[in-house]
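Title: Comparing notes on inverse folding

I've been comparing how different people in this forum approach sequence design from structure. To keep things fair, I'm posting one structure and asking everyone to reply with a full sequence. Here's the target:
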């Protein structure tokens, strides 16, 4: 029997368990994807997903369990309606200039014997499915105390999965690659470098999670528009190859969220693609989010920045002025955020064309910040005595550079919320229009969690409040993004994954890490990964240190293209860049806003090659990266504009380059190319290649 015939047979058997009159099937506009939904005899809800004439997900349960109300059983179908939606919208910034939002929608309305109503809304796209639960206004049901979400995702085989553990307090883990049947988080207990690690269930994993099926089809499970709910994790059932929704709890572990009716949950998203590249090109998560809520977006600017930052992470400087910094971070090192040092960074930024200079450690409080539950530690309007905010903001203005504000909250959230208005007014007064926030440590109010409902609402409040003050925001240690930057495009990026900093003071990120991030964490939105490290060995700063960045220098350049973000840091020290200005040129040239993106080759965990066209020009930039294996990559320049000549500059791994033994060599070469030409690129072990393709007739 062919797989298609088997699929049809299974569909018929599956249908038999449902009351036929409740079964509905809808197809995506191009018919690639289908969703069927129905009720069994007990009035329980099941759905399944088909993709390209094969099952992509088998019959899986749905429903929400709330205190006093079970919205997962006892239902009768109350009616359905469908519609076709086709609209094209323009993001304020992004990987492409236009996005098509094209789906067929099914509204599946349910009612139980007590008269309680719930609607499930499905949106079926050619590249996947979104659905959410909606609770319309109804007699007697004013507040929903959600205890559990019953949604299941029944896989059709033992797929290869890329995942991190379902940690309540952190997403800063190294990825695992296993079969679904082998998911087990036990070894993550050995992780020592995450301060808020909180892994409660050995089989829970975070979303987004991506999987590859035996036939090469890729499936990712994610969420979109996380508003007023706990973040979506998944409880794996390795024996049954199944995942069940697991919501991050509140301070009371039984209460996952509390909502006022009418209410709807965030979208649950299933991304589908015939190959890995398609996952990276999918706009499903963005499409499931609400349009931009900011009327005047003229002040929102994708940007590159440098900062008083890496010098703290490598141990040359301290955040703390008093020199009493917790031993975990460089007791005794000089205070980095001093007026003279910041001037040096402002000069550097102005000279090489960077928009911003991040300054960490400028405000009082750092001597008490590290550890757990550090409350009322920071003052966001009070600089240290050696930081002349007046003089520096004046100097920045003269240089045409913006100082980027830093608000490390130490996770003392009520304290931060009380200070927010004053803090943003202070920024406006001194000409700062971007802030990096941070949430190191356990959350205050005590018992709340980084990814729970209370905090999800806080991050959103910060996005809204900064927008009101015309401020862009970059959040560290926040919940991972779910596409909300469509609605709040001032929310440029989040960290919310294991960033570059881990390479400075921990066993770090393995060479495959950056080949996994775009397929998992970054599916939900841009990451402030902070690429661009040229001096990869920490022994340079302290002979006792053994930490290294697991990369070649050429790969650091390629990351500016392969890890999409409208906010990119050149993270290394100015003096390291000034030693290699020829290599640094690529970081100066690479843009952060694009009209078009093509993922040319990709395999999760192995390699990625991406080409992007600079906003408003015909220039293209290519980044190619590999894991610990060397590779040869062919880049067909089919995307270049016909009839034009381009000057291509290649920044490739030089002779003998190797992430472990010889990270430094970069071979820079130039040539003239046209559409149809081919670049043959050699990537070293742990290496990469960056290419700029500049339209020669550019004015
Ligand atoms: C952790 C952040 O990820 C990092 O970028 C920052 O420097 C420190 N916290 C201090 O706030
Ligand atoms: Ca961090």
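Reply #1:
Here's my take.
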């Amino acid at each position: 029997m062919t797989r298609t015939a088997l699929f049809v047979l299974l569909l018929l058997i599956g249908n038999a368990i449902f009351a036929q009159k409740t079964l509905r099937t809808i197809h995506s506009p191009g018919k690639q994807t289908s969703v069927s939904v129905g009720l069994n005899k007990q009035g329980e809800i099941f759905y399944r997903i088909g993709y390209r004439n094969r099952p992509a997900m088998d019959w899986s349960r749905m429903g929400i369990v709330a205190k006093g109300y079970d919205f997962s059983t006892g239902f009768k179908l109350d009616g359905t309606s469908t519609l076709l939606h086709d609209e094209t919208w323009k993001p304020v910034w992004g990987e492409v200039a236009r996005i098509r939002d094209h789906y067929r929608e099914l509204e599946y309305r349910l009612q139980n014997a007590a008269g309680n109503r719930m609607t499930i809304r499905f949106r079926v796209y050619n590249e996947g499915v979104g659905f959410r639960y909606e609770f319309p206004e109804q007699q007697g049901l004013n507040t929903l105390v959600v205890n559990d979400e019953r949604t299941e995702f029944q896989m059709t085989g033992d797929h290869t999965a890329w995942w991190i553990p379902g940690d309540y307090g952190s997403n800063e883990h190294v990825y695992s690659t296993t079969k679904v049947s082998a998911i087990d988080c036990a070894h993550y207990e050995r992780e020592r470098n995450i301060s808020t690690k909180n892994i409660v269930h050995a089989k829970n994993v975070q979303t987004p999670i991506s999987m590859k099926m035996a036939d090469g089809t890729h499936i990712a499970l994610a969420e979109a528009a996380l508003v007023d709910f706990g973040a979506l994790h998944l409880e794996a059932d390795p024996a049954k190859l199944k995942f069940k929704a697991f919501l991050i709890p509140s301070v009371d572990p039984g209460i996952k969220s509390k909502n006022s009716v009418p209410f709807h949950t965030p979208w649950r998203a299933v991304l589908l693609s015939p190959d890995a590249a398609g996952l990276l090109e999918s706009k499903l998560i963005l499409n499931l989010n609400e349009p931009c809520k900011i009327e005047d977006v003229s002040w929102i600017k994708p940007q590159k920045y440098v900062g008083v930052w890496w010098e703290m992470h490598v141990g040359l400087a301290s955040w703390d002025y008093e020199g009493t910094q917790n031993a975990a971070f460089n007791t005794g090192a000089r205070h980095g955020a001093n007026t003279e040092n910041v001037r040096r960074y402002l000069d550097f930024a102005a000279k090489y064309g960077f928009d911003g200079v991040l300054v960490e450690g400028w405000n009082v409080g750092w001597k008490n910040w590290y550890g757990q539950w550090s409350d009322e530690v920071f003052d966001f309007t009070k600089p240290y005595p050696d930081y002349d905010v007046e003089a520096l903001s004046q100097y920045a203005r003269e240089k045409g550079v913006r100082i980027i504000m830093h608000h490390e909250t130490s996770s003392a959230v009520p304290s931060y919320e009380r200070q927010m208005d004053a803090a943003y007014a202070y920024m406006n007064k001194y000409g700062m229009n971007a802030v990096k926030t941070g949430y190191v440590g356990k959350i205050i109010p005590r018992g709340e969690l980084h990814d729970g409902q209370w905090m999800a609402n806080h991050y959103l409040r910060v996005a809204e409040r900064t927008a009101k003050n015309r401020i862009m925001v970059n959040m560290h240690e926040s919940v991972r993004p779910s596409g909300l930057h469509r609605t709040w495009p001032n929310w440029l990026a989040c960290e919310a994954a294991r960033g570059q900093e881990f390479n400075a003071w921990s066993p770090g990120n393995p060479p495959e890490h950056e080949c996994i991030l775009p397929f998992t964490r970054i599916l939900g939105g841009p990451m402030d990964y902070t690429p661009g490290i040229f001096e990869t060995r920490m022994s340079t700063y302290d002979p006792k240190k053994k930490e290294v960045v697991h990369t070649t220098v050429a790969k650091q350049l390629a990351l500016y293209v392969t890890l999409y973000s409208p906010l990119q840091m050149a993270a290394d020290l100015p003096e390291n860049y000034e030693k290699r200005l020829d290599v640094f040129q690529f970081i100066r040239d690479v843009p952060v806003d694009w009209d078009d993106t093509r993922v040319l080759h990709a395999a999760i965990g192995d390699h990625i090659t991406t080409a992007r066209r600079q906003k408003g020009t015909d220039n293209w930039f290519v980044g190619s990266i590999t894991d610990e294996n060397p590779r040869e990559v062919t880049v067909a320049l089919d995307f270049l504009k016909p009839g034009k000549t381009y000057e291509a500059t290649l920044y490739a791994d030089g002779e003998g380059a190797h992430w472990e033994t010889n990270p430094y060599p970069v071979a820079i070469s130039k040539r003239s190319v046209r559409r149809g030409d081919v670049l043959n690129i050699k990537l070293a072990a742990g290496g990469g290649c960056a290419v700029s393709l500049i339209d020669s007739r550019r004015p």
